[in-house]
Design a protein that fits this description.
Number of domains: 1
Strand order of the largest sheet: 1-2-3-4-5
Distance between the termini: 46 Å
Number of strands: 5
Helix content: 25-40%
Largest sheet: 5 strands, mixed
CATH topology: Aminopeptidase
Number of helices: 4
Radius of gyration: 16 Å
Length: about 150
């Protein structure tokens, strides 16, 4: 079941967030540090207030979550766009490869379409090949390549 979480669900969500965060630490230790609770309380409260988080519950237990936001681009040199921005999606490691992530994404995409969104975007770590393939299965493709360097 996909639903909005309660304020007291943060601890359970952070257990899943930690699993995903630890992967990011392994891929980019130059950026990420190990942290017990990657989803900060203030940020979580903001997500709840803005309806920017949903969870997937199974047998009363949270096994996945997705965070997202919306923004618009409307200027003289670009066509109007209303974007769904996927910020985070994570599924408990014991529940992966069972369609939970696909169901969360599909639910949020349908929600965004009903709000008039024209496009969806997200960023994925280049080392996260599994996630890239997952997003491609959903119909996404690489639009931009972001370059960076340490100074």
């Amino acid at each position: 079941m996909i639903t909005k979480p309660a304020l007291d669900d943060l601890k359970e969500i952070n257990q899943i967030a930690r699993q995903a965060h630890d992967l990011h630490v392994a891929w980019r230790p130059d950026i990420y540090v190990t942290f017990e609770t990657p989803l900060a309380t203030d940020y979580y409260r903001e997500l709840l207030h803005n309806d920017g988080i949903l969870v997937f519950k199974e047998n009363g237990r949270i096994i996945g979550y997705i965070t997202f936001s919306f923004f618009e681009r409307n200027n003289a040199v670009m066509r109007y766009k209303k974007f769904l921005h996927i910020e985070q999606i994570a599924v408990d490691e014991k529940s992966r490869n069972r369609g939970v992530g696909s169901k969360l994404m599909t639910y949020v995409i349908d929600y965004a379409k009903n709000l008039g969104c024209t496009d969806m975007m997200l960023t994925v770590n280049e080392a996260n090949i599994k996630a890239q393939k997952f997003y491609e299965k959903l119909g996404m493709s690489v639009e931009n390549v972001r370059l960076s360097m340490t100074l």
